[in-house]
Specification:
- This protein has 106 residues and is mainly α.
- It contains 5 helices and no strands.
- The chain has helices spanning 3-12, 19-37, 42-63, 73-81, 83-99.
- α2 runs antiparallel to α3 (42-63).
- The longest helix is centred in the middle third of the chain and has 22 residues, at 42-63.
- It is elongated.
């Protein structure tokens, strides 16, 4: 693939999610949300919230036909795409990690 072709693919964005992709993403997010509502232990809670964070970010990006971002880049990319959602996302997960508040994440 030539550099120009790669840039074109990136600029076109990822393939659009079909109904099954959206349903699968929602299912896995809902499953984790149910787990944080009544975790078996503190370490399970942390693990579940840690896993939920990138899933929500990926769902946000992909449901808008945008490339996903992972790790430390995800919050920056969220701010670039939708600053209001990025702030709400960051606040919700910070509250969950700092004091176990799950309602903002849910």
């Amino acid at each position: 693939m030539r550099l120009g072709s790669a840039r074109a693919v990136l600029a076109d964005g990822p393939p659009e999610w079909n109904a099954k992709d959206v349903a699968n993403s929602r299912y896995f997010i809902t499953d984790l949300v149910n787990d944080i509502r009544s975790p078996r232990s503190g370490s399970e809670f942390i693990g579940t919230v840690t896993r939920l964070n990138p899933m929500v970010a990926t769902h946000f990006f992909r449901s808008q036909r945008l490339w996903s971002a992972k790790g430390k880049v995800a919050p920056r990319r969220l701010r670039e795409v939708d600053a209001d959602f990025a702030n709400e996302f960051a606040s919700a997960f910070q509250a969950a990690f700092e004091n176990g508040a799950v309602e903002p994440v849910i």
